[in-house]
Design goal:
Among the domains are: 15-112, no CATH class; 164-212, Rubrerythrin, domain 2. Helices cover 16% and strands 20% of the residues. It has helices spanning 10-24, 126-135, 151-162, and strands at residues 41-43, 48-50, 55-58, 63-66, 72-75, 80-83, 115-117, 123-125, 174-179, 185-189, 205-212. A hairpin with a 4-residue loop joins strand 3 (55-58) and strand 4 (63-66). It is rod-shaped and about 130 Å long. The termini are far apart.
């Protein structure tokens, strides 16, 4: 068997050719007969040949990843290689990489698209996160936690609500809510623009019960004063 095997007969003897290659040649970066380089990068574990893209093999992940290696680290709990700036700066969720992206439903663990870690710890593709930002979707598709710091938005909401008082019949109405950010259950004033969590100040809340209408106590009425009667002059007798 020669390394310059005629390609014209592959379609007729492919299985035979492969068995011969397996018998004679061990997978490696260069051909042991003619020293031709099969790829700039070769992994002797995955048997992957590719152009040089600063790849590296991650043993815990079990696959090769695009590097460079020094810019990534493997999070043991998340079971995924993440950018170095996320070391100690993200919330870990066990084996979160084994879930699909909640936006596009594609695999996260073997994806060549970078992963973005939300404050809640869930993962989605960086490109999918950018799409969420452009469309104004600010919550995690899985747990509804805020996907980024919303303090400026909540401050603006405070101003909007202060300028939009509720009608008189709803000013004392309250409603039970649950906060998607801190999981607090509380009863807060009802407002059509939003209900603010009394625990963390977030407006990322959901109604957890019906409207509670407070009965207004009737105000005591002042006693009516009887009109003064002037004494009438006696009628002269005829």
């Amino acid at each position: 068997m020669y390394c310059s095997f005629n390609i014209s007969i592959w379609s007729h003897s492919l299985s035979h050719f492969i068995s011969y290659i397996w018998f004679f040649f061990q997978a490696q970066k260069t051909c042991q007969e003619c020293n031709v380089t099969f790829g700039d990068y070769y992994c002797d574990i995955c048997h992957l040949f590719d152009k040089d893209k600063k790849q590296y093999h991650c043993q815990p992940c079990g696959i090769c990843r695009i590097g460079p290696r020094e810019k990534y680290f493997h999070c043991q709990k998340c079971n995924l290689c993440l950018a170095s700036d996320l070391r100690g700066n993200h919330k870990c969720v066990e084996n979160v990489s084994r879930q699909n992206c909640p936006v596009c439903m594609e695999d996260m663990h073997t994806s060549r698209i970078g992963a973005h870690v939300l404050p809640c710890g869930h993962l989605l593709h960086k490109t999918c996160f950018d799409d969420m930002v452009r469309t104004g979707a600010y919550r995690c598709p899985l747990c509804m936690h805020s996907a980024w710091n919303m303090e400026d938005s909540w401050e603006q909401m405070d101003k909007d609500m202060a300028q939009s008082p509720m009608p008189t019949e709803y000013q004392d109405a309250t409603v039970k809510i649950i906060c998607n950010d801190c999981q607090t259950h509380c009863t807060v004033p009802f407002h059509v623009l939003g209900m603010k969590c009394s625990g963390c100040g977030s407006y990322n809340t959901a109604q957890d019960g019906g409207l509670i209408q407070q009965l207004q106590e009737p105000q005591p009425q002042e006693p009516q004063q009887e009109p003064e009667h002037k004494p009438q002059s006696p009628v002269p007798e005829p």
